[in-house]
Specification:
By secondary structure, the chain is an alpha/beta fold. It has one domain (5-207): 3-Layer(aba) Sandwich (Rossmann fold), CATH 3.40.50. Helix content is 32%, strand content 30%. Strands 1-11-9-7-4-5-6 form a seven-stranded mixed β-sheet, with helices on both faces. A three-stranded parallel β-sheet has the order 8-10-12. β13 (188-189) and β14 form a beta hairpin. The longest helix has 19 residues, at 27-45. The protein is globular. The termini are far apart. The model has no long low-confidence stretch (mean pLDDT 94). The structure holds uracil. Uracil (URA) binds next to α6.
């Protein structure tokens, strides 16, 4: 079983994270790095994926061989930045079902406001991996997971690129049963709810909107 918090310290992950943090990294570079790092993080967060078997013929004889039960996985992207982590994971598990939850942060209260929700059926039978690059206050993540649990999800994981200690604590309090996988836990949140030192606004950096 994954710990409540797993920090992936693999050198390739840490190297790519440094390049992502660098404000001189271009939008195109940021996107490419995010896709690459998502493949590496996906490896960690999918450790406990359901397996099944299938019969194949090797050149020597038939065998019953292990295979991913990809249809039992649901990936839920918290819009819009979650989409940056989605593509890489889907390359590894192409049969996964995909859902989207649209939440924006009210700039005054920093509280999440839901504007979209479309998730796969039968969440109770799936491993559900929620993806959002930045676990900052934890408000959106907690709200998204509240919603998914109401829809039936029982077996959840949360995948992010960077976490703030405040967000990790909030998740631990609200959803101690949901393991978090991240590349780093940074120092703190600033007054605007940004992770410090962080990498800025992940959505703006990946879509070039600022
Ligand atoms: N969202 C971001 O994109 N960046 C942060 O630092 C915090 C929340």
């Amino acid at each position: 079983m994954l710990e409540h918090l797993t920090v992936v310290r693999h050198p390739l992950v840490q190297h790519k994270l440094t390049l992502l943090r660098d404000k001189n990294t271009s939008t195109a570079g940021f996107r490419r790095l995010l896709r690459e790092i998502s493949l590496l993080l996906a490896y960690e967060v999918t450790r406990e994926l359901d397996m099944t078997t299938c019969t194949i013929d090797t050149p020597l004889e038939p065998m019953e061989a292990p295979i991913l039960d990809g249809k039992k996985l649901a990936l839920i992207s918290i819009l819009r930045a979650g989409n940056g982590l989605l593509d890489g994971i889907l390359e590894l598990v192409p049969a996964a079902r995909v859902g989207f939850i649209g939440l924006y942060r009210d700039p005054e209260t920093l509280q999440p406001v839901q504007y979209y929700c479309k998730v796969p059926a039968e969440l109770e039978d799936r491993m559900v991996i929620v993806v959002d690059p930045m676990l900052a206050t934890g408000n959106s993540s907690v709200a998204a997971i509240d919603l998914l649990k109401k829809a039936g999800a029982k077996n959840l994981r949360f995948l992010c690129l960077l976490a703030a200690p405040e967000g990790v604590a909030r998740m631990r309090e609200a959803h101690p049963d949901v393991p978090i996988v991240t590349a780093a836990v940074d120092s703190h949140l600033n007054d605007h709810g940004y992770i410090v030192p962080g990498l800025g606004d992940a959505g703006d950096r990946m879509f070039g909107t600022k």
